[in-house]
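Below is a filled-in request sheet from our internal design queue. Each sheet records the structural input a requester submitted and the sequence that came back. We keep these sheets so that new team members can see what a complete request looks like end to end.

REQUESTER: design group, bay 2
PRIORITY: normal
MODE: inverse folding
CHAIN LENGTH: 43
BACKBONE (tokenized):
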């Protein structure tokens, strides 16, 4: 992996973490949100 690919992966992971934190803060945690996060991680 190149440094650019690593940076892109890190940026995507940060986006996913931010979305998960927002969902948790807003008490939106549920099976659908969890599945969406897992699906995004697997891609």
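RETURNED SEQUENCE:
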């Amino acid at each position: 992996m190149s440094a650019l690919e690593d940076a892109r992966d890190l940026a995507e992971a940060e986006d996913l973490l931010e979305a998960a934190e927002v969902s948790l803060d807003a008490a939106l945690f549920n099976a659908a949100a969890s599945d969406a996060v897992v699906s995004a991680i697997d891609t």
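SHEET NOTES:
- Helices lie at 3-25, 31-42.
- The first helix runs from residue 3 to 25.
FILED BY: M.R.
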